[in-house]
Every structure is written in structure tokens, then in C-alpha cells.
Amino acid sequence: MTILLLTVYILIGAYFAGLLGSLTGLGGGVVIIPLLTLVLGVDIHYAIGASLVSVIATSSGAASAYVKEGITNMRMGMFLEIATTLGAVGGAFLSSYVPASFIAIIFGLILIFSAFMSLNKKTLQADPVSSKPAAFLKLSGSYPDQDRQIPYGVRNVFGGFGLMGFAGVISGLLGIGSGALKVIAMDNIMRIPFKVSTTTSNFMIGVTAAASAVIYLQRGYIDPGLSMPVMLGVVLGAVTGSKILVKANSKSLKIIFAIVISILAIQMIYKGFTGHI
């Protein structure tokens, strides 16, 4: 296979990864890493490095739009980013000492978890009352909804902070944004409205990935020839997905995504156990 043909395959695959990731809100990394490792035979460390670059690009583009609309809670995002960044750096360091087969197994389990969470997202009603630590840190806010501002409070700050640290470790170890874990921390633990949690998670994902990417870059796992088509394809796919999402049946999309991700997860886990990755 020539380099040009390989680049075209990566570009097309990354496009569909970005498309699927955008339609489900979980990002393209959960698809692009299995694609590169299982289909194209790329070493999982280089696949993770390329995925991190694409996560930074897609998060930066989407986050700016959400911040402009006033949905993202930047104060809370920057506070929680302390935990995710520290976790991401730790996870990136661990990646060099953890066997590739073990990383593949963990990744497969996270894929199954992400698929499950995409099918079981629940919308919570905004509660304007905050806990004392959240009030002290001034983490509460409001978001626009149908020409009105809806105030919301924040609960269980330390529980959410702890889970954010774990999400950072997973992000650094596996090269994904860990959006599912971050949304869980903000939705179910901190009791933040879904619209705010997803947009704030998107804002945080890029910073978390950037912290991990520095370690991968220092260790030579970010290959420009691989990262460039992956980043370009994922960004184009994400833009297309954002346009389709307006008219598409979200329930059907989630089911399709869950099936695809589950198949990839089983293959990753199988190859991890058999040592063929």
C-alpha cells in the first residue's frame, strides 16, 4: 500500500469517526483508535497520539461556539480542569509502562461503557440551590433556553472533582476525551443540567487532551503524517455531523452508534487478551 493510498484511507475513516462522534456527543476518538489499530494495523500508542490531536482540534472549534452562546460554565470548567489535567498527565506517563494489550482491553471496556451511556442519557430539571462548597467557589450559573435564562445550582463538588481526576487518567491513557465520564460527573453527581454539562465537558476535553499530548509528543508518539489526515477527517466529519443532527432521529443514531461501538469493543478486548495488538 502506498503512502498516498494509506492517507486517503485514514482520511475517509477519520471522517466517519468524526461524524459518528459528533452525532452522539462522545467525540471521534472512540472510533478512530479502533479503526487505526484494528483495520490499519497502527501501533496503539501512535493511534492514541493522533486521536489526541484530533480531540484538541474538534473541541476547540465547538467550545468557542458554546462559550459565545453563554451555555458553557467556564468558571466550573476551569476549576474541574485542575483535576482532569493532573489525571491526564498521570495517565500519559502510565501509557509507556502499561502493555499495549492491557490498554486495548481497558479501551474496549470504556467503549462498551460509552455505548451504554449514550443510550441512557437522562435530562435533569435545573435546581437553583447550590451546596456550600459550590456557593463558596461561585460555580452556579444560568443558561439560555427559549429566550429565557434558567438558573441552576451545583452539588457535591468534591465527588465530581474526584471523578474528573479519574476521567483525566483515562483520557491520558487511552487518548480519548472521556466525555462520557465527565458528563456523568456533572450530570449525576454535581446535578448540573444536561445542556450545561455537555457543553462544559466539550470545553474541558481540549485542555485535557493538550496536557496528555505534550507527554506523547515528547515520547515521539505523535506522527505528523498520521495525525494530519486524522485531524482533518475528524473535523470535517464533526462539522457534517452537527448539520445532520438537527434533522436526524437522535434515538436511531444512538442505537446505531451503540452497535458499532460494541462490535469494535469486543474486537479490541479479544485482540488484547490474545496479544494480537
Helix content: over 70%
Global geometry: globular
How large is the share of residues in beta strands? under 5%
Helix tally?
Answer: 11
What's the pLDDT, averaged over the residues? 82
Which value, in Å, is the CA radius of gyration? Answer: 18 Å
Number of domains: 1
The computed structural class is mainly alpha
What is the rounded distance between the termini? 20 Å
Order of helices and strands: HHHHHHEEHHHHH
Major beta-sheet overview: 2 strands, antiparallel
Number of strands: 2
Structure characterization notes:
The chain is mainly alpha-helical and 277 residues long. The protein has one domain. It is 75% helix and 3% strand. The chain has eleven helices and two strands; from the N terminus they run H-H-H-H-H-H-E-E-H-H-H-H-H. Strands 1-2 form a two-stranded antiparallel sheet. A hairpin with a 4-residue loop joins strand 1 and strand 2. Helix 2 packs antiparallel against helix 3 and helix 4 packs parallel to helix 9 (194-218). The longest helix has 26 residues, at 44-69. The chain is globular, with a radius of gyration of 18 Å. The mean pLDDT is 82.
Any key phrases for this structure?
277 residues; two-stranded antiparallel sheet; mainly alpha; single chain; 75% helix
Give a quick precis of the structure.
This protein has 277 residues and is mostly helical.
Topology:
Blueprint: H1 3-24, H2 29-39, H3 44-69, H4 74-95, H5 100-119, H6 132-137, E1 141-144, E2 149-152, H7 157-174, H8 179-189, H9 194-218, H10 224-245, H11 250-274
Antiparallel strand pairs: 1-2
Helix pairs in contact: 1-2, 1-10, 2-3, 2-11, 3-9, 3-10, 4-7, 4-9, 5-11, 7-8, 7-9, 8-9
